[in-house]
Amino acid sequence: MAVTWTRAWWRWTGGPTTRPVERVVRVDGRSRADEPDDERQAFGRWVRKRPRVDGGKRRGDGCGRRSLSPTWVLAVGGPQPAGRGGRVGGVGRDASRLAGLQRRLQGIAGGLAVYDEAPDNVSSSTYSSTPSLPGCRVAPGRRADAGLPLARVTSNRIDVEALAAMDGVGRFREVLPMLMDPVAFAEAFVSGDAAGGCRVPSRGMERHRATLRSCGVASDARSRPAFAMKAFTTPKKDGRTARLVLDARPLNDAMRRPPSMDLPRLRDFIAEVERHRFAMQCDGVSYFYQFPVDASISRYFGIGMKGCDMLLNVLCMGWSWAPCIAQRASNVLVRDLGLAWVDNFLVLGGTLDEAERNVAVFRKRAQAARVEVRAEGDDALWQVRSRFVCVGVEFDLAAETQRHRLDPAWAERWVDGSGMTAVLSGRATARQFAEVFGGAVWATDILAVPRCHFAALLSFAGRLGGRMVGAAAPVWDEVVDVPPSARRELGALRKIVRENPWVVGGVPEDTGSVLWTDASSRAWAALLEAEGRFVDGRQGVFAGPDADAHINLKEMLAFAEGVVRLCWAPGAQRCRIDNAAVVGAVAKGSSSSYAANRVLSRSLRVAERRRIVLCPGWVPSGEQQADPHTRGASLPRFPAPLSASR
């Protein structure tokens, strides 16, 4: 790796550092020559720290950790010429030193902007006196939504022990020690060192101190917190108040990843609701803040404030384990009664009597665990309904066939929002595009529109996201040029969302046939099986650009040929493929490849016109009936017995 000598100034920017490819180099002992070309472009460079005036070594870094020695830190930079392996920026091959350096770099938990000299618009007096790395000065966090008052939250606290006693599966009891047991909490640290992390002060949070105290959400710290992190506010749906969020990335980076949330997939959630006729909906009041945290653990949830830091006494919104704990607790309350989506509870019933009985059981559980809930919108609490809106989806269970669509209010805001107007004009900020694209993903999932139909939009979003992840300091307010092809596809989706059609659930009747498709490096084949024999088939040789395509794309091409040429009967069409990437892409309606999305879009549009629902399934290559016909074997005369393909 090439070594670049420069004077480096560092400034806190709040960007992510948890992605696998960063402009902040992952220090794992590998040289740049060992990296793929696409990752090599994201590499940073090693630079020397600003020398101490007194020439001595630093005894500490303001984070309760011994400082690095002698003089090396990691700086952000553009692509550098690939160097030879062996030594990395003068650090050498000492794996323990590299691991220690990596842990300290992860303690920054935010993007780092590098200046060859001190920036003109930032004076040294604006930096914090408690840097997260020796020789690095960290600017206080940026204030957000300072004009909105902090919404008052409930002072109710859930009886987590009683809730754990109701847990017949044990999934909530598995994560409960993270709230109550300081030993289990300390064991969750990756480095094994839970002594402390960096301190990042918050701006503008001092005026919320009284509100936090009065609700019991936080209290003044009597000693220095193990982690004092930046807090900020985000506006709530009412637009008049804000909610508190803690930027817990320093803590998240130091701890191991949480287990599965047990959150149902959106499609499974919708399908389960549509198997019933009645439902009662409610949500937890300030749900995260109803979970108490043991006093010995709250020191890890510090809020860096001017004058005196504060400690959160409740579940930290921003901590990576918090959604898992909340979702698993909700699953205990609705077990065998309905569904939960974090703080949204849905009690279901096939008949009105069954729904009311289930509501009575849910009320008893909520009261026993002291969980405070409220009705959604203008509904009366505990009211059973057949038409309602939940998690942004409007359900109509009273219709002859249960159906759903987007929440009309949400659809109107997304279609006519200022962000949509800016993106369609071709000149939008990265933040506006990200918000619009997130809504597009949500809308396509609910309306069952395959995302492969928007290949250009997905491709541009992927490129923009990669640029933001690879940037030292992602500039979300930077104006980006949205290509015309992506704007056209977004306009087509906008038209669909504006119409907001009802989507009827259920699976159509099976066609009784099975489509087998396979591809080799030079040829493809497709067979249609029905009534225990092969009734039709096609095969061909890849030519032109397809001959040099990736094997996954060739498998997708074989699948598309099979659907277009062999599938005509309406209904559920079973498909057997020995390529997991193609199976996953067909199942979810999109791929990470632009070329694969274009091919998949063609096959799905044909299936939609013929009223065919494709049901892909994976088979081992040894059981793939079309495999011999991709390796030189001719197709049999149809109809043919199944043994004809072997």
Describe the structure concisely.
With 646 residues, the chain is of the alpha+beta class.
Kindly list the characteristics that best describe this protein:
single chain; 646 residues; alpha+beta; 5-stranded antiparallel β-sheet; 19% strand
- Can you give the mean pLDDT? 78
Q: What is the number of helices?
A: 20
Total DSSP E strands: 27
Q: State the oligomer.
A: single chain
Give the uncertain stretches in residue-range form: 1-144
Q: Strand arrangement, largest sheet?
A: 26-25-22-23-24-27
Q: Provide the gyration radius in Å.
A: 28 Å
Shape: globular
| First-to-last CA distance | 54 Å
Relative helix content: 25-40%
DSSP strand content: 15-25%
Structural class: alpha+beta
Report the biggest beta sheet as strand number plus sense, adding barrel if it closes: 6 strands, mixed
Describe it for me?
With 646 residues, the protein is of the alpha+beta class. Helix content is 30%, strand content 19%. The protein has 20 helices and 27 strands. Strands 26-25-22-23-24-27 form a six-stranded mixed sheet. Helix 16 (455-470) packs across helix 17 (484-499) and helix 18 (551-566) packs parallel to helix 20. The two termini are 54 Å apart. Mean pLDDT is 78; it is low at 1-144.
